[in-house]
Amino acid sequence: MPVVIIEMWEGRTEKEKERLIKGVTRAFEEIGVKAEWLNIIIHDVPKSNWGTSGEQASKTAEITPSYMIRKPDGSIAREKE
């Protein structure tokens, strides 16, 4: 019974998590693992609990998740699907 643990920054929507779970499931089905055998666990980690390059991710302003875009005024917004 495979277990896939996904650790990522918090902030994804329920729809995005659903798409992620379906995509991971498809990938395992392609190698012969039945969906009912698979367990997927998503850990939403606050940026303050994530360190990168010796800093808390919450203090590193230049890090922008791939589903977000930086607008011309410098603000960050969720990318439209």
Structure in a nutshell:
The protein is an alpha+beta fold. It has one helix at 14-30; strands at 3-9, 39-45, 51-52, 55-56, 68-70, 76-78.
The major sheet is characterized as:
2 strands, parallel
Shape: extended
Quickly count the domains.
Answer: 1
Q: Could you name the ranges where pLDDT drops below 50 across 5 or more consecutive residues?
A: none
CATH topology descriptor: Macrophage Migration Inhibitory Factor
Strand order of the largest sheet: 1-2
Compute the number of strand runs. 6
Fraction of helical residues: 10-25%
CA-to-CA gap between the ends?
33 Å
- Integer-rounded radius of gyration: 16 Å
CATH superfamily, please? Answer: Macrophage Migration Inhibitory Factor
Strand content: 25-35%
What would your notes on this structure say?
- By secondary structure, this protein is an alpha+beta fold.
- The chain has one domain (3-78): Macrophage Migration Inhibitory Factor, CATH 3.30.429.
- Helices cover 21% and strands 30% of the residues.
- It has one helix at residues 14-30; strands at 3-9, 39-45, 51-52, 55-56, 68-70, 76-78.
- It has a two-stranded parallel ribbon. The protein has a two-stranded antiparallel ribbon with strand order 3-4.
- The longest helix has 17 residues, at 14-30.
- It is extended.
- The mean pLDDT is 85.
